[in-house]
Design a protein that fits this description.
There is one protein chain. By secondary structure, this protein is α+β, with helices and mostly antiparallel strands. It folds into 4 domains: 117 residues, Immunoglobulin-like; 106 residues, 2-Layer Sandwich (Alpha-Beta Plaits); 352 residues, Rossmann fold, CATH 3.40.50; 75 residues, no CATH class. Strands 16, 17, 18, 21, 22, 23, 24 and 25 form an 8-stranded mixed beta sheet that branches. The chain has a 5-stranded mixed beta sheet with strand order 1-8-7-3-5. Helix 6 runs parallel beside helix 9 and helix 7 runs parallel beside helix 8. The longest helix has 19 residues. The radius of gyration is 35 Å and the shape is flat. The two termini are 50 Å apart. This is S8 family serine peptidase. Keywords: Hydrolase, Protease, Serine protease, Signal. Belongs to the peptidase S8 family. InterPro entries: Peptidase_S8/S53_dom, Peptidase_S8/S53_dom_sf, Peptidase_S8_Asp-AS, Peptidase_S8_His-AS, Peptidase_S8_Ser-AS, Peptidase_S8_subtilisin-like, Peptidase_S8_subtilisin-rel.
Length: 692
């Protein structure tokens, strides 16, 4: 029996030993009391019993197997400590209670309580920017190079064995006890030469520091002494600030901009400041293949290609919601019973919602609304309607929409359509579970569009699992997963976002629960949940509105917008270069390198576009390989102690240059370490992390 199981057995038999000493009424239920796992991952529980039993209540971090049985209670408790580890990682021990309901053969029922505790594992370290000396570096400025003399004196070094012993105190208080001989010899030489000496102190047995007024004369006298190895000015070291001037962040003043937390998370206040330089000059078209758009939303004015510029409704069925089949009007229509929720309008607003005042066309409508990522850049959305008013789309319609968006000809109702503004970027905030065979026609089209030069970004899916969604899983498409806020210095994987090998990038898509309110903003006096706020439409009132949505549908246009900005600024010039830049500058999350949860990481607009630094703070980022985030406190010396579950952790000490609260991203100084915690390594000390 191992140590843990011996401890459990002792606890379970204690009541029987007491009964032998003090008679009492027999207990009819199984006698269970407490289990201490210590740092073990599991422990057995056994108790004699006749009858049926089952576990009816248990904390989320404990797994019990089996959960029911008949006869003697015999089960195993396993701890998944990560499910109860708080964000601050400051709880050294976890505690929980199991409730066991039982029934004896004679029908008597009851409950027994089993208390369980488990010790956490410890991770120690320190984050210190010692290379910067807290923002300063030391540079030498010798006095002989024309610097004003500061009467700092001379350092004089005598040859080994040439300094004779002097009686301590010969030269009074000006010669200190340490290195008295060297200091005394210097004073004797200089005073013999008639030089006024202000003082001397010994630094070692043959090195002294001498203070004089006439530096050149003193240097000549000392250098003429054959016992002197060298005499040099006591050079002054000056602290010189090395931190560069920080740019001011550009934060929009639109009414609902404070609710748009994804932009700050990706570093857009630095990017928008960068746009003020006027470097974003190349026109870019982003095709949004979706449910259509509301051209009459005032916050989208000027950001859309219209029906005379190539906008197109692909759906040929007359019952598609607008009743007129394929045409050049991809307006997201009203149908009976529809109230709110124009998906295509919401996606389009993330990319191109206008800044500043708009021509609000309804009473009480916001005069400024929200903002889009592309701000001043000449980026336009091409609306291509392929999803009907019920939210459905056929593979055939998506095929036509993708082909048309990429500039390939399509035939609809006997007419051939050719896009006058072929899209460099195609946004597909749509998808579904298809078999590879079912997806072949769609994937062939995606590849054809990619070969035509388009970047195709597709939503990875909201299936809460690992099933590939198409077209995201098609070769030639870039599958985009979703992250959301965690309350710590890194976003976490959104639980609804499907994870599979084709996921290549992630972006903020928001939470699936209104309980998450880490963004700190409020709407109508209530804390705003971590959802994505953008343009929408109220079909009940037939007027514009703004809506909060979440999903990989909302994450995908974040990536499409950034790709468009890379092309507009000229950082990249083609699809391959743009994708490579997005991957290389993404914020690596979860395990080091590409993984199924995050792909290469969350897109980082500030790093990708080379935006100027708007902040420079030092901090800690801590995640496990499952994407969970923890934020232990740093003390005044940068030290931290985290109590964590067993697992592998990626620990980053770094600087935050784009003021998004994430330390050590691409293009930011960082020191990344990996630590494995568990029974075999219950304590790991990482030492000092020094971002460089």
């Amino acid at each position: 029996m191992n140590k843990s199981s011996a401890h459990v057995a002792r606890l379970l038999t204690l009541p029987l030993l007491l009964a032998a000493c003090t008679p009492r009424a027999p207990e009819t239920g199984p006698q269970v009391s407490a289990v201490s796992l210590g740092q073990a991952l599991s422990a057995p529980v056994q108790a004699p019993f006749q009858g049926r039993w089952q576990i009816t209540q248990q904390p989320a971090w404990l797994e019990v197997s089996p959960s029911s049985g008949e006869g003697n209670v015999s089960l195993t408790i396993r701890a998944d400590r990560s499910k109860s580890t708080p964000l601050a990682a400051d709880q050294a021990q976890l505690q929980g209670t199991l409730i066991l309901e039982w029934t004896t053969p004679d029908g008597t029922t009851g409950t027994s309580t089993l208390s369980v505790s488990a010790d956490q594992f410890r991770l120690l370290g320190r984050v210190a920017d010692t290379a910067r000396l807290t923002g300063q570096t030391l540079v030498t400025r010798p006095l002989e190079q024309g610097r004003p003399q500061a009467a700092r004196g001379i350092l004089v070094k005598y040859r080994s064995g040439t300094v004779s012993a002097q009686r301590e105190g010969t030269w009074g208080p000006t010669a200190q006890a340490q290195g008295t001989q060297a200091a005394a010899r210097s004073l004797q030489t200089l005073r013999t030469a008639g030089i006024n000496v202000q003082g001397a102190r010994g630094l070692s047995s043959d090195l002294a520091s001498v203070q004089v007024r006439d530096l050149p004369q003193a240097l000549r006298a000392l250098r003429q002494d054959p016992t002197v190895d060298y005499a040099v000015p006591n050079a002054v070291l000056h602290a010189q600030q090395t931190s560069s001037v920080l740019a001011a962040p550009l934060n929009p003043t639109d009414q609902y901009a404070p609710l748009q937390w994804p932009f700050k998370l990706m570093g857009y206040p630095a990017v928008w400041r960068d746009m003020e330089s006027g470097a974003y000059t190349r026109p870019v078209t982003v095709a949004v293949v979706d449910s259509g758009v509301r051209f009459d939303h005032p916050d989208l004015t000027g950001g859309l290609w219209t029906r005379t510029d190539g906008a197109l409704d692909i759906i040929t069925e007359p019952g598609n919601g607008d009743g007129d089949g394929a045409d050049t009007d991809p307006t997201d229509p009203s149908v009976a019973g529809r109230t709110a929720g124009s998906h295509g309008t919401h996606v389009s607003g993330i990319i191109v919602a206008r800044w500043g005042e708009n021509a609000g066309n309804c009473a009480g409508c916001s005069g400024t609304g929200v903002v889009g990522a592309t701000y001043r850049a000449p980026v336009k959305v091409l609306p291509v309607r392929a999803i009907d008013a019920n939210g459905d789309a056929t593979v055939a319609d998506i095929i036509n929409a993708v082909r048309y968006s990429a500039g390939l000809p399509v035939s609809l109702d006997g007419l051939t359509h050719l896009n006058p503004h072929p899209a460099q970027v195609i946004n597909l905030s749509l998808g579904g579970e298809l078999s590879p065979d079912e997806a072949r026609p769609l994937c062939d089209t995606v590849m054809a569009a990619a070969q035509a030069g388009a970047l195709i970004f597709a939503a990875a899916g909201n299936g809460y699992g690992t099933t590939p969604y198409y077209p995201a899983a098609c070769p030639g498409a870039i599958a985009v997963g979703s992250v959301t806020l965690s309350g710590g210095s890194a976003p976490r994987h959104a639980p609804y976002s499907n994870a599979y090998p084709e996921v290549q990038l992630s972006a903020p898509g928001g939470t699936d629960t209104v309980a998450d309110v880490f963004n700190g903003a409020s709407l109508n006096g209530n804390a705003f949940p971590d959802m994505v706020f953008s343009t929408g439409w109220n079909y009940e009132k037939d007027e514009p509105q703004y809506e909060a949505m979440s999903g990989t549908s909302q994450a995908t246009p974040q990536v499409s917008a950034l790709a468009a900005l890379l092309l507009s600024k000229g950082v990249t010039s083609d699809a391959a270069g743009t994708l490579a830049r997005l991957n290389a500058t993404a914020t690596d999350l979860g395990p080091v390198g590409r993984d199924d949860l995050f792909g290469y990481g969350m897109v980082n607009a500030a790093a990708a576009l080379g935006a100027p630094a708007i902040s420079d703070t030092l901090g800690l980022r801590l995640q496990d390989t499952r994407g969970l985030v923890f934020q232990p406190r740093l003390d005044a010396l940068g030290r931290f102690e985290a109590f964590l579950a067993d697992g592998t952790y990626v620990v980053t000490g770094g600087r935050d240059r784009d003021n998004n609260g994430i330390y050590g991203e691409s293009a930011e100084p960082r020191d990344v370490r990996t630590a494995v915690l568990g029974p075999a390594s219950p304590l790991v000390d990482l030492g000092t992390l020094e971002p460089r």
